[in-house]
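From the methods appendix. Each design record in this collection lists the tokenized structure first, followed by the designed amino acid sequence. Records were kept in a plain field format so they could be parsed without special tools. The example shown here is representative of the layout used throughout.

RECORD:
FOLD TOKENS (190 positions):
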């Protein structure tokens, strides 16, 4: 049995011959920022914004690394994880989601993901997850969002998905419309 002292906590990108990275997310600004940041870190980035585009890349040019959003406009990111893992077993895949919950995290790991990160994310957290040593435990984030901020982000995401319709958002979140209006009128918590 190996002792924990000999286990590297973090691999380096230079340890990998293939530095290709698929970023699959339908949030254009997030995908663009993350792609630029990961290119600066040395990854060769391919971007996709739909399950169909992601499946095409996974079949044609399977990447060594992937950051895949769970819920996309045209389907589920887990389908792309399965296809990528089928075509390149050694791919290191991280799932992103604005809707973190235990069953989907378990499903993501079962189909080949190595980590599961809730949005919003920064490039350093993504890089740490992609390059984490398989034997080491993931480190907690340096500056995690407060519970109030996570709630605020979730409410605003649902609000945007409902085309900024307050009544529809309140119905889906099962909250009173006036309560939702008060939350939406406030600035984001830190």
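DESIGN:
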């Amino acid at each position: 049995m190996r002792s924990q002292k000999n286990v590297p906590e973090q691999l380096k990108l230079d340890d990998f011959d293939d530095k290709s990275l698929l970023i699959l997310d339908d949030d254009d600004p997030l995908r663009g920022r993350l792609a630029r940041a990961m290119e600066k870190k040395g990854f060769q980035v391919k971007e996709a914004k739909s399950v169909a585009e992601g499946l095409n890349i996974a079949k044609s040019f399977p990447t060594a690394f992937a950051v895949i959003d769970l819920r996309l406009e045209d389907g589920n990111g887990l389908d792309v994880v399965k296809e990528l893992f089928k075509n390149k077993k050694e791919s290191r895949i991280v799932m992103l989601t604005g809707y973190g919950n235990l069953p989907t995290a378990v499903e993501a790991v079962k189909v080949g993901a190595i980590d599961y990160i809730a949005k919003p994310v920064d490039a350093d957290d993504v890089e740490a997850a992609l390059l984490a040593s398989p034997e080491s435990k993931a480190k907690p984030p340096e500056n995690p969002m407060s519970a109030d901020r996570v709630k605020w982000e979730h409410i605003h995401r649902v609000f945007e998905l409902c085309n900024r319709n307050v009544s529809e958002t309140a119905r889906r979140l099962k909250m009173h419309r006036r309560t939702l209006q008060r939350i939406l009128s406030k600035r984001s918590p830190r």
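APPENDIX NOTE: The two ends are 44 Å apart (CA to CA).
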